[in-house]
């Protein structure tokens, strides 16, 4: 029977769009790389939405975390702290891209400019909006502590971009760096900090060294040095055992994200436990490549992954704003469970899960409003291929698949 309902037409349109994206994707593209990048971005987003709470306290808001009150929920952070996978993919893609650019005769400056433009162009919109928002809140009498909390959470993703940009700029010097060298730096920094009573500021050396480990592991992946399943198993097993030992016997926190009020954070700055945990994640990611490639042959799945990659920075930069906008819009209704209340029980966790679709909807609004800032650099570089479709949209879905 022919599909004549509106729902049927929508489904048919989605299938046709997914088929077009699948058809124009180059055969040589490693779709598993895109899948891993999408997984890493979405993992960070969901992790923040699950462990970040804004508690209505008097006339203001303060940040909190369910991990403060329910430490046995620490395994949640193991599933959603996926930055190591993002750095792994970033190192792999940047190394491969730089090598190809050099072979084509492209200068380092042009290559770096193209790489960084997509990272930092969307940042301007975030900074502008929150500068205006913070000024407006202060002028209307909002507590300074509340404004500080909101701005800190909204702009917290920027530290990641700065580190990633610095490593990207250093790619030509990291092409042959063995990941064991930055791992050794992290080990010695932690020994000095925790074992010998060294100054706490020494830990900030690990901001570079800690993320260099998965980034240079990505370069080793490009060189084919960790391309075997044996390497993936070694990283997964070794990283898992080392992390378990560090948590059980060396006093490292079980949570792989920062917990307000905790004496030590595994992430800010990165500790040896966070790095070994990242190695385990990278090993798992490398082992899953074959399965991901097979899954990505499904047009509908691949289309979703391609579109996430196309707007990865927009999603990453605006997901905290979506959470805070939802929280602010809900304040007139009183202290809503899972949104304004103290995250001290399973009731809060259950209520927070119900808020996730709302956060997603608000993030979709942010995406619709600000995605142009991420895609604009590509528009300017492809004027001859721009096509106006769908009420003024300047890119087709197949173009998205080619560029994701």
Report on this model:
It is a single chain. The relative contact order is 0.15. It contains 18 helices and two strands. Mean pLDDT is 88; it is low at 377-404. It has helices at 6-24, 31-51, 66-69, 75-80, 83-104, 108-139, 144-155, 157-169, 171-174, 180-195, 205-223, 229-249, 272-287, 289-295, 299-310, 312-330, 346-381, 397-403; strands spanning 53-57, 60-64. It is 71% helix and 2% strand. It has 404 residues and is an all-alpha fold. The protein has one domain (46-327, 336-403).
Write the topology of this structure.
Blueprint: H1 6-24, H2 31-51, E1 53-57, E2 60-64, H3 66-69, H4 75-80, H5 83-104, H6 108-139, H7 144-155, H8 157-169, H9 171-174, H10 180-195, H11 205-223, H12 229-249, H13 272-287, H14 289-295, H15 299-310, H16 312-330, H17 346-381, H18 397-403
End-to-end separation in angstroms reads 37 Å
How many domain units?
1
Strand order of the largest sheet: 1-2
Give me the number of helical elements.
Answer: 18
Overall 3D form: globular
Poorly predicted runs? 377-404
Quick one: biggest sheet?
2 strands, antiparallel
Q: Briefly note the structural class of the backbone.
A: mainly alpha
The residue-averaged pLDDT reads 88
Q: What is the number of beta strands?
A: 2
